[in-house]
Amino acid sequence: VKLVESGGGLVRPGGSTTLSCTGSGFIFSNEPMRWFRQAPGKEREFVAGINWSGEELEYAPSVEGRFTISRDNAKNTLNLQMNNLEPEDTAVYYCNVRYTNYFGLGTQVTVSS
C-alpha cells in the first residue's frame, strides 16, 4: 500500500487550498478513506472521512463547514478542499485507509500572515 499526499504549503488566514492523496497497491475504490492532521506538539487527530462511494461524509467539528472531503475513484485520488483557513489549521496532513494503519508521509499546511 502506498499513499502520497500533495498540495498544501503556506496559506494566508482566510485563504484556501486543496490537498490530494493518490493511493496504490490496493483497490482504492473499495476502501473508506480519512484525512488526519498533526500539529506541532499535539497528537494526530481525525479531520474528515468518506466512504467508498463518496456518499457518506464525516468531519471533525473544528473543520465542518470549512473543509470538504471528496474522492475520484477513477483516478485513485482523495481530496480535501480547505476554505477559510485559520492559523490553528497549521499541521502536517495525512491520508489514511480507514481501519488500517496505512498512512502517507504527509504534506505540510502552514496558515500564517
Task: Give an account of the 3D structure.
Strands 2-10-9-4-5-6 form a six-stranded mixed sheet, with no helix packed on it. The chain contains no helices and ten strands. The mean pLDDT is 97. The termini are far apart. The chain has 113 residues and is an all-beta fold. It is globular.
What attributes does this structure have?
single chain; 113 residues; mainly beta; six-stranded mixed β-sheet; four-stranded antiparallel β-sheet; 10 strands; 50% strand
Number of helices: 0
Tally the beta strands: 10
SS-derived structural category = mainly beta
- For the residues shown, what is the average pLDDT? 97
How is the topology of this model organized?
Elements: E1 2-7, E2 9-11, E3 17-24, E4 33-38, E5 45-50, E6 57-59, E7 67-72, E8 77-82, E9 91-97, E10 107-111
Parallel strand pairs: 2-10
Antiparallel strand pairs: 1-3, 3-8, 4-5, 4-9, 5-6, 7-8, 9-10
